[in-house]
Amino acid sequence: MPNPIQDCMMAHSSVRAFEPTPVPKEVIERCVAAAQMASTSSWIQAYSLLQIHDATKREALAELCGGQAQVHAAGAFFVVLADSRRHLLLAESAGCDHVQNLEGFLLAVVDASLFAQSLALAFESEGLGICFIGGLRYQLDEVDRLLDLPQGAWPLFGLSVGTPEEKPDGRPRLPLSAVLHHDRYPTDGEVAAATDAFDEVASAHYAERGLAGRTWSGGMARKFMAPVREELAAYYISKGARLS
Fold first, then answer.
1. Are 69 and 62 in contact (CB under 8 A)?
2. What is the mean pLDDT of residues 99-109?
3. pLDDT at position 34, please?
4. Residue 177 contacts by C-beta under 8 Å, 6 or more apart in sequence?
5. Do the Cβ atoms of 133 and 61 come closer than 8 Å?
6. Domains of the chain by residue range
7. Interhelix angle 188-208/216-223, nearest 10 degrees
8. Which of 69, 115, 135, 228 is least buried, going by the fewest C-beta atoms within 10 A?
């Protein structure tokens, strides 16, 4: 049976070139309202979405995100926040403690991520393109100053949204057998076999784009050779998070 939701999901690709057409306010509000129906732990709804309209701020954010032009070129740009601020204020109003620990931080991060993925799907269902911007975490202290964020509002990543200038092909994904397991986690040999199988698919994908000789496993090995963004823990702690 045709399933338009799954068809939309399978057609996903990250868009990095956008037409300058603004995303209408009514489309944004409709998509955000739909995304709010994402699952949320214990109904805490620990997220907020900050739309950046100011052109100067968007240009500055593009640079802080590593020179990513789509941050200021897309029809709309958002910052996804894990948000415990409202819970902190509720506790203060009730005259009780608001205790943070790693679980509390993770609850907000998971809630915000579920909301953000639902939001992306809602935008894509409208025929728009999206690109998550993890580069927002390159210089979080500077992002924080630019956006004047309070304690308990934790920026996680950005989201560019707009009319695609071109629709790139999606990247292949790991085989189903690599991610769907039954009753037990696979052995290391089974994990390696699935990775080897995917390397063949990924190598063909690279070769078609003039990058012959590259593999997915090689890229992953290089990506995790050394720690990155080591200042993140200190930043989030400074904003009220507890990571223990």
1. yes
2. 97
3. 98
4. 194
5. no
6. 4-168, 171-239
7. 110
8. 228
Q: For the CA atoms of the chain, what is the radius of gyration?
A: 20
What tens digit of pLDDT does each residue of 145-177 get?
Answer: 999 999 999 999 999 999 999 888 899 999 999
80, two tokens = 């996804």
Q: Give the length of the chain.
A: 244
Residues 17-35: tens digit of each pLDDT? 999 999 999 999 999 999 9
- Strand order of the β-sheet with 47-51 is 47-51, 76-83, 153-162, 129-133
Q: What is the pLDDT of residue 188?
A: 98
Query: What's the pLDDT band for 218 if we cut at 50, 70, 90?
Result: very high
The residue-averaged pLDDT of 238-242 equals 97
Structure tokens at 31: 């998509």
In sequence order, the 6+-apart residues with CB closer than 8 A to the CB of 192 are: none
Question: Among 86, 101, 103, which Cα is nearest to 45's?
Answer: 86
5/21 Cα distance (integer angstroms): 25
129-133 and 76-83 beta bridge pairing = unpaired
* Pair type for strands 129-133 and 47-51: unpaired
Rounded Cα distance, 28 and 31, in Å: 5
* CATH architecture of structural domain 4-168: 3-Layer(aba) Sandwich (3.40)
pLDDT at 15: 97
Which residue, chain included where needed, has tokens 């996903």?
A: 12
